[in-house]
Amino acid sequence: MALSKTITSRQRSITLYPPTQEMKDRWFKIANQEGLSVSNFIVEVVEDYIREGDVTNSKNTLLKNIGEFKEQNEKLRHENIELQKRVEMLNTLTDRYEKQLQDYSNKTFIENGKIAGARKYQKSLIELFKQRSSISEDEIMDLLHIDPHDTETLKAISKQIENLEDYDVVQKIRGGWRWKK
Questions:
Q1: How far apart are CA 19 and CA 104, in angstroms?
Q2: Phi-psi region of 172 (alpha: psi -120 to 50; beta: other; left: phi over 0)
């Protein structure tokens, strides 16, 4: 009886040569940590691999998936480029509209009396006066992000401040202005 088990064991045996000594040592170490013989460890790893997927088709499946991922990646890349172009275009349009709105708002103050209707003061300018006990012209320009070379906006801001002084809500002080109310 013992002989038949030996023959059966030999018939079932596989000789395995790991590519490196380090790999063999690592397998032994992991097997010991798991409380398994190296043979049982290798059997478990192989069986787990087989259970995870069809071994015969795994390479073909991976290649197919890689192809699909590349195709999807290319589509997303093109979509991203188109969206970036659209965002850039929308940002440009927004900048233009903001500039036109600023120009129109400036014009109502620069052309004092020539444009009929109520003038809308720049809300951020009013808020600056209200938030600070006093504020200088340079601080106004910095905090409102006004380009010093934008003469139209500078004129409009100056005119708004003059009007606020005329309405007695802003008072000219040394080095700037202060909110009176």
A1: 78
A2: beta
Radius of gyration of the chain (CA): 39
The CA-CA-CA angle for residues 111, 117, 120, to 5°, reads 75
Q: What are phi and psi of 176, to 5 degrees?
A: 160, -140
Q: What residue has token string 């200088």?
A: 136
Give residue 19's identity as a one-letter amino acid code.
Answer: P
Summarised one tens digit per residue, pLDDT across range 8-34 is 777 778 888 888 999 999 999 999 999
Residue ranges of alpha helices (H) inside the chain are: 2-12, 21-34, 38-52, 55-110, 123-131, 137-143, 151-166
Half-sphere exposure for 41 (CA within 13 Å, toward CB): 16
- pTM more than 0.70: no
